[in-house]
Specification:
The complex is a heterodimer of chains A (616) and B (835). Chain A is α/β, with parallel strands linked by helices and 616 residues long. In chain A, 50% of the residues lie in helices and 11% in strands. Classes of the chains: A alpha/beta (616), B alpha+beta (835). Chain A binds chain B through residues 89-90, 120-122, 125-126, 129, 163, 167-171, 173-174, 202, 205-206, 209, 212-213, 382-383, 386-388, 414, 417-419, 421-427, 429-430, 433, 468, 471-472, 613-614, 616, and chain B through 540-541, 566-569, 572-573, 576, 595-596, 599-600, 602-604, 606-608, 624, 628, 631-632, 635, 661-662, 665-666, 668-669, 672, 690-694, 715, 717-718, 720-721, 724.
Chain lengths: 616, 835
């Protein structure tokens, strides 16, 4: 709308190829088990699978019935069972139970397990332990990447975050490397790779290794540069309330695999409907990146336009009417339908979000980001906990407080924790242990900080061991340093200036002008400087692990200027829709096109729910 | 060039020539007499077993391996059993087939590699004859026993023995036999007297050669052509019958007029042969019998051996090594006396040109008139390929190059490739190398195989040079050679580990596609573990290092390498290996030093072996995690007693971890659980497992105020929280009297605005109004607005002179009904603004 759009933005590559590849491979795998078969699909693979191959396609390839994996005994009459699952021990064990039950009942069937995107060694071990290793055949479906939209590709691995950052289980790193390798082989060669974070570095190395193993073909590159970033580099951004339309829809209605379910509060009927949210939806495409306060005005303007278009009918002669009906009416009807949906959604959001509570919440968040009136914020959080408004929201505020303030004072830490436990039960001791380990919610360390200690240790021993030591300490001493970073990168604009949300001047608009997301700011800075030079202090504050590597095809670097402006950003551990919006804004400003690859689209609720331990 | 044709002998339409390849550099005292000889095709090595029948331990047979030029490559004394037959495999391995059916495999340097048996029954029945044959499936071996039982193995690298059926009525050994490969099946053709049989895996079929005119009483020898397409049979009457190997067609029948059976009989033909022939070797006579019934006779002054080749026959004698072949058509065209073929003219033209004679022009004109110059060049190039003498090659190539000058649009590719090929061929034909390949053979066997053969001979520098010269891609060429070199290098026992590592790494440093792990595993196989480990350090892919390290029982090192690789599957592999190999204590200690592995293992235990997890934390004295473990475990427990005991353990551990906060919280939880249990028992309240807040809520909801109060005091619940809770609970149940009582019990820690709000939430304006007076001034306006009392709100706002609040009230006023109020407010607002 009001962006100063650069006209020469390069075209995005076509990612539907990824879907085709995945579908062809799946069909190939299904046909490895000839004859009719029942297919059991892991619950969280249902939606991604639907985007790759729908039921009709599956049925065409001899799939008889489809079931969701529910960890219950099965009721299938087919003599061939195929399981399409993530490589999780729990699911493998369930399959073992199924097979063993069949054995006990003297039933003979053929079983095939298709792991996606890859099989892990432990899966085989589990099969072996349960004594059914010889009874099943296994395969891998290399379905790494699901294009959710023109510029969003997801690995659909929400567990990446917890596994990697909390449990120190690096099994997915190689997956990320393989995903990158796939993109590289289809759309590369990339000319530059930047990154920050330990996991990014490992993913990068895994990718390099895979390149060296495979053959290289000279191709016309479609993606120029790559930026890898760990989620734990910036926890503040995903923990802030989202106020851009798409983010809000995700926070309130939960977007799942690019699809949202609108209930009775949005549409007038009782039955809920599922709506795909992507660039194909023209109305949505225009408002998805807008600050929520603009959306309503925009939609009503749109409605008026629509009315005028409809009104054209009046005073038409038969011939004109005929062309109107055949050419425009369908489009208008479609637009009408979408418009009413989004108006409904915005109304529902309005109801929730213009309430005093929400305004207070936002105010508190902004104060925290600014580092202003902290006492008031703490009492607000306290009240929030006491009144049991929402557990996840309380946790979110606590974490934001800790992140921005570099930990809580011991007194506050204890009292807030005690209150929280009283409200929500003592089992959250484990949640707090997890949050502490991840550095999301910590107590301020009196005296010498661990970072200082580390640097001393680092001087004594060589780099490699220091790296290992740092890793060992990092969980204990994940220091946020948010305040210093915010100053250095100018993340929080001066509050005395009026911020016109209709004409955003920087990425801060996604948080009502209160905060420029750290992750996106880093990307902007690195691209601007073509590396990390001059950001030494920043990377030190972020615990280092930054890198910038120029690819080996330096010769045609200048020639394809357009490709250089297509940048792939990979978030390891998930990213939010707000961040995507911010990057789209940055792209329009600077003439870049960003492609966001993420292990999963996340938000504050998903991030924190992953920290709860009650699901173990 | 008359001398070139001097060695040509006419045979029907074609000519045959016998070219000397080498003067043998070996010195054999007794020639080839009393020797088993095996010479591999494609200019391969020659193996010689002297005195194979010597049995006494004092005089053992002597096995020697020579290059085709007679240079010794290995020499050893034969100490195993009596050998029936020697033979070479396609990968230059020597097969020594013993009487008892055992086949011993040696490499080119005389190193014993392995052995296999052609069947246990042969130990009894003894092999009398054996043949080594080559087919598309690899190298095969066929043996026959004294009782005429055949056993076949088509590919010795994938040994599958086939025992062929018995031949009915055959007594004793067959008079002669040969192996045929037809229709993807390997069969044996055998002659017993005048009867011929074809044996395949299931049946025995009697056959007879079509059109054999002279009756004979027995076949004395037979030969199958190199391509298994043609068959030659020699009868006791001295007749030679030739035909197709499927015995469907007869080619010719020649009367050799020699009654004694030939010692060797070999087909001599080339692809697109004009005049195929069979070479028969008798004592002191070599007879070439063409299909055209013509013959050539060469006197033979020494005992020799024939080696069938793709395009001729090599004759290896004690002093000389010849190649007998049909003169290729192009050579024939060019060099035949008085030939007027374009190639011949071009060669002549060039000769004249070198003499600066104008005749050169005449010849050229002559060719050009027939517009055959292109053909002439092509002929010269092709003929050059077939010539062995470098001078002849040069003359032909120069002529071709000369002719090329007068042509436009002539593709140089053929010329260039023949030049390259010849350069390579001349290099390998050198007596020092001794691989006398013809151009046709070279094309058939490909460069890759040639490189392999050079590598087997350890001629690494030459192989590398050839690869570089031919610009073979590194992965297929240089890297492969150097890998082989390195594998060979690590077996040199005399050199120290460091020297070898230095040499290998220096040489392989910038060669792509080298697998150090492969080299290291070779070193390990030779028992040099230390060397293997040092070599593995150079392996870039950790995935390759780990399995070998585990095999060498260097598990610690394997673990660190696996972790470095970032591949969790590898780490798991090592961890599960360690788990089985080590005792528990050592295993945990190992994990302790490897945080990545430890966290992976913990994850695994969480899902698979909860108990192990506890041990793991115990070992590490990680009281915090141990306590967390107990807490987690407690939630899985259904019975309260066990749950409490687990929580007690958690408390102990928290205390040990100096986490007083958590200890206290857990203790309180236990207290709460007991309290809930008591109430559940007494009142059936179903509280167990609820949080403190939820418990209080439930208590208040079911009217158990006293108990709630008890919890409130006992657990030091903050006043604010309790007030909020009670307030909401009372309003929920609409116990307005209770609420009022509560509001008066003491000064509200949360103010009175919430009271107003909860009442309004239940739509009870009447009750709400009761509390308005108690609301603090700063919240008054809000409170009034909440109950919808505009007047009151206005009043309060005006009193407070707050612009914002005035505005808030104003926004709620409607212009139609509240005129007066609006005016008043506006005035107050202006006044406030002025101030």
């Amino acid at each position: 709308m009001a962006y100063s759009v650069r006209k020469d933005s390069p075209e995005l590559p076509d990612f539907s190829l990824l879907k085709r590849l995945a579908r062809d491979q799946l069909i190939y795998l299904l046909e490895q088990l000839p004859g009719r078969k029942d297919l059991f699909i892991e619950a969280d693979l249902m939606s991604p699978l639907d985007r790759i191959a729908n039921v009709t396609t599956l049925k065409q390839h001899d799939v008889d019935k489809l079931y969701k994996v529910e960890y219950k005994p099965i009721v299938s009459t087919s003599d061939q069972l195929c399981f399409l699952i993530r490589p999780r021990i729990q699911t493998v064990k369930w399959i073992c139970d199924v097979v063993n039950a069949d054995k006990a009942a003297g039933k003979f069937r053929r079983y095939k397990i298709i792991f996606t995107p890859q099989k892990f060694y432990v899966c085989d071990t589990a099969l072996e332990e349960q004594g059914i290793f010889g009874d099943v055949t296994t395969d891998e479906w290399a379905f790494y990447l699901l294009p959710l939209d023109d510029d969003i590709i997801s690995l659909e691995l929400p567990e990446f975050f917890r596994d990697n950052f909390l449990e120190g289980d690096q099994r997915w790193v190689r997956t990320a490397g393989s995903a990158l390798h796939l993109l590289h082989s289809l759309y590369g060669p990339f000319s530059k790779v930047y990154g920050i974070g330990r996991c990014s570095k490992m993913a990068y190395e895994s990718w390099r290794e895979q390149i060296e193993e495979g053959e290289q073909r000279a191709r016309h590159a479609e993606i120029g540069n790559v930026f890898l970033i760990d989620r734990d580099v910036d926890f503040v951004t995903p923990l802030c309330s989202q106020v851009v339309y798409e983010g809000l829809v995700d926070d309130i209605f939960k977007i799942k695999c690019g699809c949202v379910e609108f209930g009775a509060d949005v549409i007038s009927s009782d039955k809920s409907i599922k709506v795909m949210l992507n660039a194909q939806d023209k109305v949505f495409d225009e408002i998805r990146n807008e600050h929520f306060s603009n959306v309503f005005g925009f939609l009503s303007q749109k409605a008026k336009n629509l009315q005028t278009a409809y009104d054209k009918r009046r005073g038409m002669d038969i011939k004109q009417m005929k062309t109107f009906v055949s050419e425009e009416l369908k489009g208008l009807k479609q637009e009408h339908r979408l418009l009413s949906l989004h108006i409904g959604a915005s109304e529902a959001m309005m109801k929730k979000k213009t309430k005093q509570d929400f305004q207070d919440l936002l105010k508190t968040e902004h104060s925290l980001l600014e580092g202003f009136q902290i006492r008031e914020c703490i009492s607000f959080i306290e009240e929030h906990i006491n009144r049991q408004v929402s557990m996840i929201e309380s946790l979110r505020l606590l974490c934001l407080l800790s992140l921005t303030e570099n930990g809580l004072l011991p007194k506050d830490y204890r009292s807030l924790k005690a209150q929280f436990l009283q409200s929500y039960g003592v089992d959250h001791l484990l949640t707090f242990a997890n949050l502490r380990q991840l550095g999301l919610l910590v107590e301020q360390q009196p005296g010498e900080t661990l970072t200082a200690m580390e640097s001393k240790v680092g001087k004594l021993v060589n780099d490699r061991t220091a790296g290992k030591l740092t890793d060992a300490f990092s969980s204990l001493a994940k220091k946020s340093n948010f305040r210093a970073l915010s100053r250095r990168l100018n993340l929080v604009p001066k509050s005395d200036e009026e911020y016109d949300l209709r004409v955003p001047r920087d990425m801060a608009y996604i948080f009502s002008g209160a905060y420029v997301p750290l992750s996106c700011k880093l990307i902007e800075q690195v691209l601007e400087r073509d590396g990390w030079t001059g950001l030494d202090e920043v990377t030190r504050l972020l615990n280092g692990h930054e890198f910038a590597v120029t690819g080996n095809n330096g010769a045609d670097l200048k020639a394809k200027n357009d490709v250089q402006r297509i940048i792939l950003v990979m978030f390891l551990g998930g990213c939010t829709f707000s961040e995507i919006s911010a990057l789209r804004f940055l792209g329009k400003e600077k003439g870049y096109k960003f492609i966001v690859v993420t292990t999963a689209v996340t938000n504050s609720a998903r991030l924190l729910e992953a920290m709860l331990d009650n699901h173990v | 060039m008359a001398f070139i044709t001097a060695t040509w002998n006419p045979l029907g339409e074609a000519f045959y020539r016998k070219v000397e390849l080498y003067e043998m550099s070996w010195s054999l005292r007794d020639g080839l007499r009393d020797c088993l000889v095996a010479a591999a095709p494609y200019g391969g090595p020659i193996a010689l077993l002297k005195g194979p029948h010597r049995r006494s331990p004092s005089v053992r047979p002597q096995l020697d391996i020579y290059s085709a030029a007679g240079a010794s490559m290995a020499s050893l004394t034969w100490k195993s059993g009596p050998v029936v037959q020697l033979g070479w495999t396609v990968s230059d391995e020597l097969l020594c087939i013993q009487e008892d059916g055992t086949v011993l495999v040696y490499d080119l340097s005389g190193e014993f590699k392995r052995h296999f048996s052609m069947g246990q029954e042969l130990v009894q029945s003894q092999v009398v004859e054996a043949k080594v044959f080559h087919s598309p499936y690899g190298t095969g071996v066929a043996v026959v026993t004294a009782s005429s039982r055949f056993t076949l193995a088509t590919n010795i690298d994938d040994l599958k023995l086939r025992r062929l059926p018995e031949v009915p009525g055959l007594q004793g050994a067959p008079s002669c036999w040969a192996v045929l490969t037809q229709d993807r099946q390997t069969k044996v053709l055998l002659a017993s007297g005048a009867d011929l049989f074809i044996l395949d895996s299931t049946s025995c079929l009697a056959v007879s050669p079509p059109g054999l005119s002279v009756p004979c009483s027995s076949f004395v020898n037979m030969a199958v052509s190199f391509s298994y397409k043609y068959l030659a049979l020699v009868t006791d009457t001295g007749h030679l019958w030739t035909g197709t190997a499927n015995l469907q067609e007869k080619l010719s029948e020649v009367d050799t007029k020699i009654r004694s059976p030939p010692k060797h009989i070999v087909w001599c033909r080339r692809p697109k042969s004009q005049q195929p022939s069979v070479v028969l070797m008798f004592e002191q006579l070599l007879l070439v019998a063409g299909v055209c019934n013509d013959t050539i006779q060469f006197p033979l002054d020494e005992e020799s051996v024939c080696v069938a080749e793709l395009d001729g026959v090599r004759i290896v004698g004690p002093t000389r090594h010849h190649l007998l072949q049909e003169v290729p058509l192009v050579c024939d065209d060019i060099f035949r006396i008085a030939s007027m073929s374009p190639g011949a003219l071009l060669l002549e033209a060039h000769k004249e040109y070198q003499k600066s004679s104008q005749k050169a022009d005449e010849y050229l004109r002559e060719i050009k008139e027939q517009s055959m110059l292109g053909e002439a060049v092509r002929q010269c190039v092709e003929a050059a390929g077939h010539e062995h003498d470098p001078d002849t090659q040069k003359a032909l190539l120069r002529a071709a190059s000369f002719g090329k000058c007068f042509l436009t649009n002539f593709s140089p590719e053929h010329f260039v490739s023949v030049c390259r090929d010849l350069r390579v061929l001349n290099a390998v034909r050198d007596p020092a190398v001794g691989i006398p390949l013809t151009h046709t053979q070279y094309k058939q066997m490909t460069v890759q195989v040639l490189i392999d053969r050079l590598v087997y001979r350890q001629l690494y520098p030459l192989a590398v040079e050839i690869c570089r010269y031919l610009k073979t891609p590194e992965y297929q060429g240089v890297s492969r050679i150097l890998k082989h070199w390195a594998c060979c290098k690590v077996q040199q026992k005399s050199q120290s580990d460091d020297v070898i590592v230095m040499a290998v790494s220096a040489r392989l440093a910038d060669v792509p596609g080298i697998s150090y792990s492969h080299i290291a595993s070779k070193a390990y196989q030779c028992g040099r573990t230390e060397l293997a480990i040092k070599l593995l350090d150079y392996e870039a892919r950790s995935g390759e290092q780990v399995p070998l390290l585990l095999k060498m029982k260097r598990s610690q090192l394997a673990l660190s390498k696996a972790i470095e690789s970032g591949d969790t599957d590898l780490v798991y592999t090592v961890v599960s290996y360690l788990k089985n190999e080590m005792n528990r204590g050592d295993f945990f200690m190992t994990l302790r030093n490897q945080p990545v592995a430890a966290s992976l293992y913990r994850k695994f235990c969480k899902l698979q072996e909860q108990e192990t997890l506890k041990d793991l934390y115990n070992q590490d004295d990680d009281h915090q995690e141990l306590a967390n473990y107990y807490v987690t475990a407690s939630y899985r427990e259904k019975r309260l007693e066990s749950r409490l005991s687990l929580l007690q353990s958690a408390v102990d551990e928290y205390n040990k971890a100096k986490n007083e906060f958590a200890a206290k919280a857990t203790e309180e939880d236990m207290r709460l659980l007991r309290f809930q249990r008591k109430l559940d028992d007494e009142k059936g309240a179903e509280l167990l497992g609820l949080s403190l807040q939820a418990t209080m809520e439930a208590l208040l909801a079911s009217g158990l105020h006293k108990q709630a109060e008890h919890l409130y005091r006992d657990f030091k619940v903050p006043d604010k929280r309790y007030w909020w809770l009670k307030l909401r609970s009372l309003a929920e149940k609409e116990e307005w009297e209770e609420l009022e009582k509560f509001s008066k019990s003491k000064k509200s820690p949360i103010g009175y605005l919430p009271f107003v709000e909860v009442c309004i939430k239940r739509q009870n304006k009447y009750e709400a109004k009761k509390y308005i007076s108690k609301v603090t001034p700063e919240h008054k306006v809000k409170a009034h607005l909440a109950v919808g009392d505009l007047e009151g709100a206005a009043e309060a706002a005006i009193e407070r002179r707050s612009e914002a609040e005035l505005g808030a009230v104003l926004s709620r006023c409607s212009t139609s009904t509240d005129r007066l109020l609006i005016d008043r407010l506006n005035r107050a607002k202006m006044a406030a603004a002025k101030k």
